[in-house]
Structure of C-type cytochrome:
Amino acid sequence: MIQSGFNAHPTSASSYVFEVIRRTGLAAFLLAASAATTAQTPAAAPAAPANAAVQALYQQHCASCHGEQRLGGMGPALLPESLSRLRKPQALQVIRDGRAATQMLPFKDALKPEEITALTDWIYTPVTPAPSWETADIAASRVETEGWKTWPAKPQWSADPMNLFVVVEGGDHHVTLLDGDRFEPIHRFASRFALHGGPKFTPDGRYVFFGSRDGWITKFDLWNLKTVAEVRAGINMRNIAVSGDGQWVMAANYLPHTVVLFDAELKHQRTYPAQLLDGSKSSRASAVYDAEPRKSFVVALKDIPELWEISYDPKAPPIYDGLVHDYKMGEAIAKPGFLGVRRTPLEEPLDDFFFSQDYAYALGASRPHADGTPSGQVVNLDVRRKIATLPIAGMPHLGSGITFDHGGTRVLASPNLQDGVISVIDMKTWKLVKDIATPGPGFFMRSHENTPYAWTDSMMAPKAKHIMTIIDKRTLQPVAEVKGEPGKTLAHIEFDKDGRHALASLWEDDGALIVYDAATFKEVKRLPMKKPVGKYNVFNKITRSEGTSH
């Protein structure tokens, strides 16, 4: 479906969604408020309405925005999979009180307390039968801006396009493009809500792809400051990846259980059911990342102990599933290696992972073990098996790990969502080098090749979430702390192209982007923003800096 643009007179339901999405209150809250203060549940209400009556209430008051089957419309899907990180009292409060300056009006005068309670329970109830999102649905959702291929092939603004920051503001679902030299905004535009997994760039830095939890993928032209195309890959999506040559986009879905491949224009190419080879069990796809030196995507499955590698190299060798006596003699039937699934069996599933700097290994973790033993795994992508257990207990957040040289060897360092510790691991022996204590559990760790320091937050610690710890990579010792306002979250460092400045997020609705001198740790500038959940430097991402996630 072609339309003339996204800023005036949308001609389809999906383009209309793009225009009004930033003004939808309940959905925005439901998908972005996991860190908000939990509201108090009202006093016990009378018995909730019967199931049929609740469905009727939903159709009357909610379906116009969130879809008759709760799959999304003007607002996102209201399904257990979408609301898993949100407590019911928070959802109840929004339904009851609405949200200021949004289209989410309060229902406290229109509905009885027991009806509001029943609606809250209803949106956490699975849809039966389970919703599907098929190839036809994907194709029908796609829209593009007419004439985009004729847009100028150079930036229409004055700044270094390689030192551009893309800043995701979760507070009001916008994206700010920031000049990384002057730290001045270039442009700000509305996004889908609950962008997740980080934006991904084409190798020339011109196009950026965003993925939302509701399954929407948006392709945006950074040089012309316009949206190129959008498509909905699924109902609940984990993240997206863009191939190193910029020709492919892959989405990992929680719902449905699929991995979906698109070309660079977001035209659907293939859907992979996330299931065992015999189809006996399916899984949520927990993460997909591009392994550019291998010319492949690597996919982790949350419920199945397998790691997939899907090559986009036309010359990829054939794939032989199962045991083969001698594949060189043609004793087995091969599947094409190009865009085929090469499976690596594991002992347990991986929730998330990242790569060694040479992309020979995938380093990931599964759910915390009940007995406290480490769950981190080292998977050799060539041998296709686990070769070591990472000695990191608790909940290592390896997706935000970094690597650097220390003591003549390459090490990895990972934050921990459960414990106030940074674990440093030797990447030759896979042994623990050191545990570095921090004020509390953290989510992100970042560095840069041109700085001797690594920065990490403690955003999972209620009493220390305002503290950033700075670690000397040479000594593995904390050397400084950067403190914000107690009670407010300071998180997600990202460096500029040269590593001279470190940018942090004051992760609040009335928050800010704070620029620090990376050598002195002093604040240089502060730009007010609406809950800047993440910022991403074009050069560091496309060159795969060792100090940031890929």
